[in-house]
Amino acid sequence: MVAAAIGITVLLVAIRHSRPPDGAVCGRPGTARLAADRPAGVAPAAPRHARQLPASLAQAYQFLDQMMDIRTAGPAPRLVQSYTGGLLGQRDDTSASTYDNALLIDAYLAEGTAGGVARAETIGKALLYLQAHERRLHNAYAPVPLDAANAIQVTDQASSTGTLAWAGQALVQLYTATRIRAYLSGAIDLGEWIQSQCRDGRGPGGYAGGDNAAGAKIPWKSTEHNIDVYAFFRLLAQETGDPVWSQRAAWARRFVMSMWDPAQSRFYLGTTGDGGTRNDTAQVEDVNSWSYLALHDPAYAGSVSWDVAHLSVSAAGYRGVTYCTGDPTGVWFEGTAHVADALRLRNQPGDSAQARSYLADIADAQAHGPNGDGLGIMAASRDALSDCQGGYVYASLHTGTTAWYILAADGLDPLSGTPIARQAARR
User: Are residues 103 and 400 in contact, defined by beta-carbon separation less than 8 angstroms?
Assistant: First the structure.
C-alpha cells in the first residue's frame, strides 16, 4: 500500500485542534442570495465518480462525505464536524472549524465533478448564511443544519484573521467554479472586514490578529495570517479586476517579507503585541511551507529546506514533520503534507524523492494509523502534540487533514493565486 501511494504521489494534511489560525473577523452583514440556476455559459461538471481516483483518494472523499452527512444529507446548508474518534471523540468534540470547512470546499472543487461542486456549495451557502445573520464569522460552529437563525451555535467565539482569509479564498474558489455572484460578494465582504478592522500601520505594517473570544482586538501580528491574507486578496484582485485588492495584498506581503531571517532561511512567527518586535518564541512548520506555496519565490525557497532539516521526526513508527522544534515526539500529518506539497512545487534536486517519502508515510497512516478507519487521516500520530504556543493537536481523524491530503495528492496549491478549478482542469 505504501508503494502504491508513492506511485500516485500522494499528500496529506493535519490540523490543529485547540487554536484555529489566530486572527481576523468576518464580513459585513446583508442578505446573501444564491442564484437558483447556474449562470449561462458555465459547463456542468462531470458525474461524481467519472474521474478514476486512486484508492486512497476515493477513500478520503468517502470519509469527508460521511462526516458531512452525519446529521443530515442533501443540500441543507451546514458546516462539517472537524474531528471524530480518538480522544477528541471521547470528549464529544463536535465543533466545525471554519478553517477546516474552507479546506473542504477546496477539496471538493478539486474533485472536478458535479457531486463535488454540489457539496462545496452546501458548505459555501452555510458560510454565507452565517455572514448574513452574524455580522461576522467566528472560528467554529456546531455542525447543524442552518434552517433558522436560532440554529446557529458558535463553539469558538474568536474570529481570526487567518481563519477569515481562508474562508474568503474558499468563497472566491466557489465563484470561479460556478460564477454565482453571491460567493464573490461574500468574499469581498470578508476582505473588507479584514481591511477595515485588521490593517495595521505599526512597524512593518501588515494585518493584526483579529478579535479574541471576548471581542477585543488582537494586537500581535502573525506571519501565517499575513500569508493567508496575501493569497486571499490576490485572488480577489484577479476575480474582481479591482486594483485595490492588489495594493492590499502587497501590504500583507510586505509584512511577510519583514519576517524573513536570511541567516537561518526561515520566517519568524510574527510580532509581539507592540506590532513591531519580532516574535521568535516558537519555530513552526506552516509559516515556512505556506510562504513558499503562496509566494513561489526562489529567494525564500530555503524556508522549505529549513522545515525538512529542523522538523523531520521519526516517532513510534511514523515519519514526517512535527509542528514545531519544541516537541519532536510525534508527527503532525497536516504539516507533513504542507512540506511535501511545497517540495513538489519547488522541485529542486532531491525534492521529489523527499516528498514521496513523506507521502508514503501519510498513506500508511491513513491505512494503519492510531484511531484510523482506513478512510480519513488523523491530525497527529499521538495525542497532545504541542504547537509550542499553548495549543495541541490530537490523534483523531480530521476533515481538515484529509482535505489537505486530497489537495496535495493532486498537486494543487490553494495559496497560489490560481483558482483550484483551473489548476484541476490542467490534470
Answer: yes
CB atoms within 10 A of CB 254: 14
pLDDT interval class at 296 (50, 70, 90): very high
The CATH number of residue 316's host domain is 1.50.10.20
Whether the CA torsion 93, 96, 98, 99 is positive or negative: it is: positive
At 277-292, the pLDDT tens digits run 999 999 999 999 999 9
> Which pTM value belongs to this model?
0.89
216 and 25 Cβ atoms separated by less than 8 Å: no
In a domain, 129, yes or no: yes
Answer whether residue 48 is part of any domain.
no
**Number of structural domains, the chain?**
1
Q: Does 380 reside within a domain? A: yes
Domain that holds residue 249: 2-35+53-425
What pLDDT is stored for residue 33 in this prediction? Answer: 30
Rounded CA-CA distance 200/375 in Å is 43
Place of cell 481516483: 53
Does residue 393 sit in helix, strand or coil?
strand
Q: What is the C-alpha separation between 427 and 385, in angstroms, rounded?
A: 36
Could you list the beta-strand ranges (E) of 236-376.
260-261, 266-267, 270-271, 278-279, 312-315, 318-321
Q: What is the pLDDT of residues 62-75, one digit of tens each?
A: 999 999 999 999 99
**What string of H, E and C letters represents the secondary structure of 41-104?**
CCCCCECCCCCCCCHHHHHHHHHHHHHHCCCCCCCCCCCCCCEECHHHHHCCCCCEEHHHHHHH
What is the separation of C-alpha 320 from the centre of its chain, rounded to a whole number of angstroms?
19
Residue 181 lies in a domain: yes
- Reported in sequence order, the residue ranges of 91-185 that DSSP labels E, i.e. its strands, are 96-97, 140-141, 154-156, 159-160
